[in-house]
Design brief:
- With 122 residues, the protein is mainly alpha-helical.
- The protein folds into 2 domains: 6-66, Orthogonal Bundle (434 Repressor (Amino-terminal Domain)); 67-121, no CATH class.
- Helices cover 75% and strands 0% of the residues.
- It is built from 7 helices and no strands.
- The longest helix has 28 residues, at 94-121.
- It is elongated, with a radius of gyration of 20 Å.
Length: 122
């Protein structure tokens, strides 16, 4: 579930020194959409929450509860992976563990490059 933290968004918009209407216009958000989000009449899509967070120069978790759940799920998955790797490490040499770590790092770097390329294209 996506839940916008309306009071936090309002506070951060106020900190920009702009009125909500001007803020929305300046950052490519329709003023009507922003008004409905802040009144709780509509729930913004994830991409709109991301856009709003970027415009407010904050993290998604600062203005929405969705990221909190994502972060908690991510932590659970990471912990499960760490436990599994720890159990497997008994059977692997330090050199094999390092090779696995290098593969993961290369994969992550490839993902980051793809994400940067997608952002530049949009």
């Amino acid at each position: 579930m996506r839940k916008l933290l309306k009071h936090e968004v309002e506070r951060r918009i106020e900190q920009t020194g702009m009125r909500p209407f001007a803020f929305a216009k300046a950052y490519g958000i329709t003023p009507e959409s922003l008004r409905k989000w802040l009144k709780g009449l509509r729930t913004p899509k994830i991409q709109h929450i991301q856009k709003l967070a970027k415009a407010l120069n904050c993290d998604i978790s600062d203005i929405s509860e969705i990221a909190i759940k994502i972060d908690q799920d991510k932590i659970k998955r990471r912990n499960a992976i760490i436990e599994e790797m720890d159990a497997l490490s008994v059977y692997l040499t330090d050199q094999e563990l390092q090779a696995i770590l290098n593969l993961v790092r290369a994969w992550i770097e490839g993902r980051r490059k793809e994400e940067r390329k997608e952002q530049q294209e949009s």
